[in-house]
From TrEMBL:
Source organism of the structure: Corynebacterium kutscheri
Pfam families according to UniProt: BPD_transp_1 (PF00528), BPD_transp_1_N (PF19300)
Membrane topology (UniProt): Multi-pass membrane protein
Protein name, entry field: ABC-type dipeptide/oligopeptide/nickel transport system, permease component
Swiss-Prot/TrEMBL keywords: Cell membrane, Membrane, Transmembrane, Transmembrane helix, Transport
Record family assignment: Belongs to the binding-protein-dependent transport system permease family.
Stretches that traverse the bilayer: 12-33, 105-129, 141-167, 179-198, 234-259, 279-302
Cellular component, GO annotation: plasma membrane
Gene name in the database record: gsiC_2
Length: 313
């Protein structure tokens, strides 16, 4: 088989396998949680019902069937785009997710873009001025940012910018102005470790022999930094960003709750509070699919940035 076709087939097989594991995890969430799945799904734990009514509901929902048959039925529904119905709103879960997804998507993409810019600028400055004052200030800021809980930082920003100074809104979008504080929270939470990774890799590549040779040949420093050092330093950052994408989503959930943003975070919180397992299943699938796709995208970006990876593939 053609090596490229073999690589594509292997990649597609890995994606399908990961998605299959996701379906098992989302299906099993109802059974792993304590209590009767029928009572949980129907939210009638505190409602007086007879055993005959419970038995009838269990039969109607198919819980008397073999678990493999139940899973096959669930998987068949997923393949048809049926994620179930919310026990809270009686709306299809797919509708709930599509309504909440835009806010989370905008917050995550803007935060990720700002994070990359901050990492590139701060990491480059720290590396160029290594062991000097700018480097020490940036590294101290990284340690401080890593130590700040996102929830605490969000409350501090609200108190300063919304309550005391009245510059930015404390909650909601407010025509886009409400995006500033959540983005700051996420960037402060995400950027510090990547700044250190980028800075250290930048310093490491700067000391390599081929960089010294390029300098002795008279190649401009700007070209060396842009074409060789920065591109090489981005590889571990891209990889770690993909691996940490789950942390970005979990951080966005906390931020959405604090700033009352109508995203997947608020939807998840409401679903957990009200034991709406159909929505929880949908969120697990959504987050899992996003992580799988981001991992694949990061691999492609690494190959794009570093041509040697394409040759190895």
């Amino acid at each position: 088989m053609n090596p490229k076709l073999s690589s594509v087939a292997t990649r597609c097989g890995g994606i399908l396998f990961n998605l299959w594991i996701l379906t098992i995890a989302s299906f099993g969430i109802v059974y792993l949680a304590p209590g009767d799945p029928v009572l949980k799904l129907l939210r009638i734990d505190e409602v007086a019902v007879t055993q005959e009514e419970i038995a009838a509901l269990r039969e109607e929902l198919g819980f008397n069937d073999n678990i493999l048959i139940q899973y096959a039925r669930y998987l068949g529904g997923l393949l048809q785009g049926d994620l179930g119905t919310s026990a809270i709103t009686s709306k299809p879960v797919i509708t709930e997710l599509t309504q909440a997804l835009p806010a989370t998507f905008i917050l995550s993409i803007v935060s990720l873009a700002v994070t990359i810019l901050v990492v590139l600028f701060s990491g480059t400055v720290a590396a160029l001025f290594r062991r000097r004052l700018p480097d020490k200030i940036i590294m101290a800021g990284c340690y401080l940012g890593s130590a700040m809980p996102t929830f605490w930082l969000a409350l501090v920003l609200i108190n300063l910018f919304a309550v005391k100074w009245g510059i930015l809104p404390a909650s909601g979008w407010k025509g886009g102005k409400g995006l500033w504080l959540p983005v700051i929270c996420l960037v402060v939470a995400i950027a510090p470790p990547f700044i250190k990774i980028f800075r250290n890799r930048f310093v490491e590549i700067s000391d390599m022999g081929f960089i010294r040779s390029a300098r002795t040949r008279g190649v401009s420093e700007r070209l060396i930094i842009a074409k060789h050092i920065t591109r090489g330093s981005l590889i571990p950052v891209i990889t770690m960003l993909a691996v940490s994408f789950g942390s970005l989503l979990s951080g966005s959930i906390v931020v959405e709750i604090v700033f009352s943003l109508p995203g997947v975070g608020m939807l998840t919180m409401d679903a957990i509070t009200n034991r709406d397992y159909a929505v929880i299943r949908g969120v697990i699938l959504l987050v899992g699919i996003a992580i799988v796709l981001i991992m694949q995208l990061s691999d492609l970006l690494c190959r794009l940035v570093d041509p040697s990876l394409r040759r190895q593939a």
